[in-house]
Design brief:
single chain; alpha+beta; 7-stranded antiparallel β-sheet
Length: 245
């Protein structure tokens, strides 16, 4: 997969999924080095740790980089082209969420895929996933997409919890699948957060990011054109504007 993601210094600077796909993220997001040369990932994570903990010391930065290294390695292996996260202080309470974007290439039957067909496939998978899974289709400026909402329980070892005891935490997730039929590709955007009390904030933020996706294809195939235009988009409501600008 050949992607060229770039960090967004401000909300007005686009991040590139590829030469044809652009989107924007808020300046509050830190970017994981999933596009870095493998031999430079460790160094990039040290620099990221210094940005996150500017008053920290070398042992703290090394500890953070060591913890994130296998996470980034797994993302690179999975072909993730962009990974960013925010660390917020909401009235004295720490909160975080992660957003990733992946360009899936050579998708089976990708030239025939539609949002409806992807949603139908996701719904079939979700049948045995429990009541916490919801699948629907939505209109984005870039076209019609399938969306999957899920939640899962993750067990955290005592070593990484504030209480020093093993804990279970609910992780909320959203995945947006946008078929790009001309090239048999799929744009996949994912949100995950362990801070379910901030779910409304992060889900609104996530869709404000996905709604900035632009597909720059100079000669779209006739069957790639959406059958109807998307409805007018509304501006993000105050929580996202207040927190992220």
């Amino acid at each position: 997969m050949d992607t060229s993601f770039r960090a967004a210094g401000t909300a007005d600077i686009p991040t590139a999924v590829s030469e044809r796909l652009l989107f924007r993220v808020p300046p509050a997001f830190f970017e994981l080095p999933v596009q870095e040369d493998p031999e430079l990932v460790g160094e990039a994570l040290i620099e990221l740790a210094q940005d996150i903990y500017p008053t920290g010391d070398a042992p703290l930065w090394f500890q953070y980089a060591s913890a994130q290294l296998p996470v980034v390695a797994e993302m690179i292996e999975e072909g993730v082209g962009y990974a960013g996260f925010c660390l917020l202080d909401l009235d004295g309470r720490h909160s975080t969420a992660t957003v990733t974007a992946t360009l899936l290439e050579s998708v089976p039957d990708g030239r025939k895929a539609t949002a409806a067909s992807v949603a139908a496939e996701l719904s079939g998978v979700a049948t045995g996933a429990g009541e916490g899974t919801l699948v629907e289709t939505v209109w984005l400026p870039a076209g019609e997409a399938a969306v999957r909402f899920t939640s899962e329980i993750m067990s955290l070892p005592a070593e990484i919890t504030d209480s020093g005891r093993p804990e279970e935490v609910e992780i909320g997730k959203i995945a947006v699948f946008l078929p790009l039929r001309r090239h048999a590709e799929m744009a996949l955007f994912e949100l995950s957060t362990p801070c379910m009390q901030d779910w409304d904030l992060y889900s609104e933020l996530f869709f404000s990011i996905v709604n900035t996706l632009e597909v720059n294809d100079p000669e779209p195939a006739a069957d790639d054109r959406p059958p109807a235009p998307p409805p007018p988009l509304t501006e993000p409501e105050s929580p996202v504007r207040d927190v992220f600008g």
